[in-house]
Design brief:
By secondary structure, the chain is an alpha/beta fold. It has 15 helices and 19 strands. The structure holds zinc ion.
């Protein structure tokens, strides 16, 4: 006995057709007209769309950063993702300094134990010693086919051009893809201290420390290296015209270069959001920074004309008002040195968050929540407002991420043989986004009060219903690691 999704409209990257979809076990086994209901559980999808489960290829769950750890983990983050229609994501494993890739993988596998949706891993390279370079091909055997390099965060994650070039050569030999955080970290590391020295410490100065030119310059450098090495490149979180132009030039040259932007970069501005009164702007601190209305237009154009291939979130959320609770007293009494042990004693405790950067914008933990809202916000402002078609929406949110990162056609589409990751999407359902109804572990969202029309009402992960209206039906451990294939297509 299977599950028969009856009378819905199936949307893929290429088609939008009325059809029944039969799921048996974990996969789609039949798509057609008037499929016989005989013995199957029938889900009436009249007036609904059937979308492939969303794939967010850029998340940071339980990420140690700047003296704290991001709030959402592979439990709460997965639940939130699913309520927003996302059934798979790829998280960034951070290679520990002095350690190996496999040390990092071990840590992230442990974090992923409570998984409730499917997930993969990218490997963030932080310390490329010769023996670590030799480790690169073995990642493919582990189903990890993407390497992430930071051109920013000097003295923390930043790699030099030698490392970038050598990694690309090695990745190309092994059918892997290189991802870059493209900002010139040397320039940023020069600008930031001079801003702080001039008393410019409020959140709004974060944008001045990371101007668009440094993103454009680094993007161009990575694009050229990709052309030189033939290594497929995926530029993460692109935000501004100089960067988009660099990618567009590379693509026009026939280089194997691709890019994404993230939801927040289409809507938020440095002036209004980072410049909000008091310390409020800290909520919106992420790198690269949010930009201008002009850049929003550039990004929409880039998703329309195919310069950008995907939209993800860079979900990495920290409390706006964190560090709450008497942990210092507790730590003193218990010989503890930090909040980590205390957190286990007191579940209501909020670990440190954005307040770490009060009086110094450079110490504000970078990142914001967004994993749950990505599909609803982009549907409202993309599809409902006529900027992109429903098919292009599916392509950006589901299909391209799966193709680029070697998960297609298991993930990213509704086709015979594909995993039955399905969001039953009600295009008429109205919803107001708010911190009061979010499933993310957060004390704010960046789309507070925004109204959307179109929302997933039921979500299935490999044939199992995990979301039904407001009800959570998923289980810890149900989420599976998705091993990815090398030599994925360049789109
Ligand atoms: Zn990121």
């Amino acid at each position: 006995m299977g599950i028969l999704f009856k009378n819905g409209t199936v949307i893929t990257a290429s088609d939008m057709v009325q059809a029944d979809v039969l799921v048996e076990g974990e996969v789609v086994t039949l798509i057609g007209k008037n499929i016989d209901a005989g013995g199957h559980e029938v889900v009436n999808c009249k007036g609904k769309y059937l979308l492939p489960g969303g794939i967010d290829v850029h998340t940071h769950l339980e990420l140690p950063f700047g003296g704290t750890v991001s709030n959402d983990d592979f439990d709460s983050g997965h639940k939130a993702a699913a309520f927003g229609g996302t059934t798979a994501h790829i998280d960034f494993v951070i290679q520990p300094k002095g350690g190996s890739f496999h040390d990092g993988l071990r840590t992230w596998r442990e974090k992923a134990r409570p998984a409730q949706i499917d997930y993969g891993f990218h490997m963030a390279v932080t310390d490329l010693r010769p023996e670590v370079m030799d480790e690169i091909p073995s990642l493919v055997d582990e189903g990890v086919t993407s390497l992430k390099l930071f051109m920013a965060y000097k003295n923390v994650f930043q790699i030099d051009d030698t490392t970038l070039f050598k990694t690309m050569q090695k990745a190309a030999e092994n059918g892997m893809i290189v991802m870059v955080h493209a900002e010139n970290g040397d320039v940023e590391a020069t600008l930031t201290p001079s801003l702080l020295a001039a008393g410019k410490t409020d959140p709004k100065w974060h944008a001045a420390s990371r101007p668009p030119e440094i993103e454009g310059e680094a993007t161009n450098r990575a694009v050229m290296m990709s052309g030189l090495t033939g290594c497929p490149l995926y530029v993460v979180h692109m935000t501004c015209e100089p960067a988009i132009e660099a990618l567009r030039r590379g693509r026009a040259q026939g280089y194997p270069v691709m890019g994404e932007s993230c939801t927040q970069y289409f809507f938020l501005t440095a002036e209004k959001h980072l410049g909000a009164p008091g310390f409020e702007g800290a909520k919106y601190v992420c790198s690269p920074p949010i930009r201008t209305p002009h850049d929003h237009k550039v990004l929409w154009q880039a998703v329309r004309d195919g310069t950008l291939q995907a939209v993800s979130t860079d979900h990495c959320n920290f409390w706006f008002e964190g560090g709450k609770g008497p942990w210092r007293e507790w730590a003193q009494a218990n010989n503890g040195s930090n909040w980590v042990a205390y957190e286990q004693q007191d579940p209501s405790y909020r670990r440190p968050g954005k307040e770490l950067g009060m009086g110094n914008f450079a110490k504000i933990p970078n990142g914001m929540p967004g994993l749950e809202e990505r599909m609803m916000v982009m549907w409202e402002h993309g599809v409902n407002q006529g900027r992109i078609s429903p098919m292009r929406f599916v392509e950006l949110m589901c299909t391209n991420p799966a193709k680029i990162f070697g998960m297609y056609p298991k993930k990213g589409t509704i086709a015979v043989g594909s995993d039955a990751d399905i969001a039953v999407w009600d295009p008429n359902k109205r919803h107001t986004l708010s911190v009061s109804n979010t499933h993310m572990r957060t004390d704010y969202i960046v789309y507070e009060g925004w109204k959307v029309k179109g929302k997933p009402v039921q979500v299935y992960l490999r044939g199992k219903k995990i979301v039904d209206g407001d009800q959570w039906l998923g289980c810890n451990g149900d989420g599976q690691f998705v091993p990815r294939k090398p030599y994925a297509p360049v789109l």
